[in-house]
Design a protein that fits this description.
Layout lengths: L2 E6 L5 H14 L5 E6 L5 H4 L4 E9 L2 E2 L1 H9 L11 E8 L6 H14 L3 E2 L20 E4 L4 H22 L1
Parallel strand pairs: 1-2, 1-3, 3-5, 5-6, 5-7
Antiparallel strand pairs: 3-4
Helix pairs in contact: 1-5
The structure holds flavin mononucleotide (FMN).
């Protein structure tokens, strides 16, 4: 059965709320094993056990948190084992123009270097114009997490799971 790991660093719970919603969305895909794991329970070796890896972070000074960078740096020890896996990123920030895209791209950059298949966050026709809050390169939300953010996160999770199903199902 294809598998997806969703994890994120989160100090005050906003990014974690998105992780849980992405997990809910991914679980709606039939025949998919989905683990939403606490960040401190995940090592680089764990990442190599999954077909899809969804990694999230708060935006810290326009970049992912140092803890997320540390995990990515540790993936040098599983180099070669992430080739061809599906990867995606999500972030939360305090401000609308707070560096969400640069932080997402920083995570995706590492995934691309590993030869992973990177999945973005397409604008879903189900969403109203007013519901769009970021997306494009990955899932992003700023300010307090809203029901719209959680809805978009569920759709993002389902989208990633559909891609994992196509590649590994
Ligand atoms: C050290 C630090 C740096 C931050 N830098 C930024 C930033 O550059 N841009 C921004 O919009 N928010 C910034 N924030 C706010 C966080 O990105 C935001 O509150 C985030 O949603 C917290 O996620 P969490 O609840 O998962 O910990 C920063 C917060 C901290 C603690």
């Amino acid at each position: 059965m294809p598998s997806i790991l969703i994890t994120c660093y989160s100090r005050t719970g906003k990014t974690k709320a998105l992780a849980d919603a992405i997990g809910r969305g991914a679980k709606t895909a039939p025949g998919m094993s989905v683990d939403v794991k606490s960040f401190n329970m995940v090592s680089a070796t764990d990442l190599a056990r999954y077909d899809g890896i969804v990694l999230g972070s708060p935006v810290y000074f326009g970049s992912p948190a140092a803890e997320v960078k540390e995990l990515l740096d540790d993936t040098t020890f599983v180099r070669g084992k992430l080739v061809g896996k599906v990867g995606a990123a999500f972030v939360t920030s305090g401000d609308r123009t707070g560096g969400k895209e640069t932080a997402i791209l920083s995570i995706l950059q590492a995934m691309l270097i590993h030869g992973m298949i990177v999945v973005g966050d397409p604008i879903n026709p189900e969403l109203e114009e007013t519901e769009h809050n970021g997306g494009h390169y990955g899932l992003a939300a700023d300010g307090p997490i809203t029901d719209d953010d959680l809805h978009q996160a569920e759709l993002f999770g389902k989208h990633i799971a559909d891609v994992v199903q196509k590649v590994f199902g």
